[in-house]
Amino acid sequence: xxxxxxxxxxxxxxxxxxxxxxxxxxxxxxxxxxxxxxxxxxxxxxxxxxxxxxxxxxxxxxxxxxxxxxxxxxxxxxxxxxxxxxxxxxxxxxxxxxxxxxxxxxxxxxxxxxxxxxxxxxxxxxxxxxxxxxxxxxxxxxxxxxxxxxxxxxxxxxxxxxxxxxxxxxxxxxxxxxxxxxxxxxxxxxxxxxxxxxxxxxxxxxxxxxxxxxxxxxxxxxxxxxxxxxxxxxxxxxxxxxxxxxxxxxxxxxxxxxxxxxxxxxxxxxxxxxxxxxxxxxxxxxxxxxxx
Length: 292
Prior knowledge:
The protein has twelve helices and eight strands. It is an alpha/beta fold.
């Protein structure tokens, strides 16, 4: 069954539509790391784009046994070159230095479209080189939707894939993509269990932009009330009940939130209970489309 992985974007920057506390303080982070270690959660998901995340993790995790997944920077050119491959290797070396590690568990192409450009074989070659050099155990990609995933799989067989997935965004389960990846032996990490915190917000505090999605969000609110469950229990219990998933990447801003997350992660449900909550409206389930 899936396990909790620690999303660290809040450790390096202010993140999330529901985040009113800003970046997690270092002293709070020390307490969070100690608690999660005792709870048996030791896989951390980070990226150079997450502000100070890699640097603060390097300080907090210096003497701890853990697994870390980090990511590449985006390559802005219309095609990929050998120079981009060297840049990937250099940036990854900087990540290792900040993290204080000689190697990490995973390295993902952060922008999957980089693998769809002419010359993408340069990036794939760089990933494979780092894996051969034992600087990384698993290489892969972070994707945003099924179409992008299908196109990537035509060019590259990853060890690890990170995908968006939550109680509203069940598209990759309904389409069979999660099951396909599992059969291929690809490790599956999901993100966006709380839809950037939107699903954990009381209805009256959601930004006006989301009024247009009232039917979907009201249905979710009513479901929580009818089941006599908190939004956190519903969101996390759902994704933790999906067998093909290996890790569920979630984030929290403080120790209290992380204690609630760990407690809620123990719940398991019949997935059929949640089918009525699914929506395929990308304007809601893809935060890159939000206009806040």
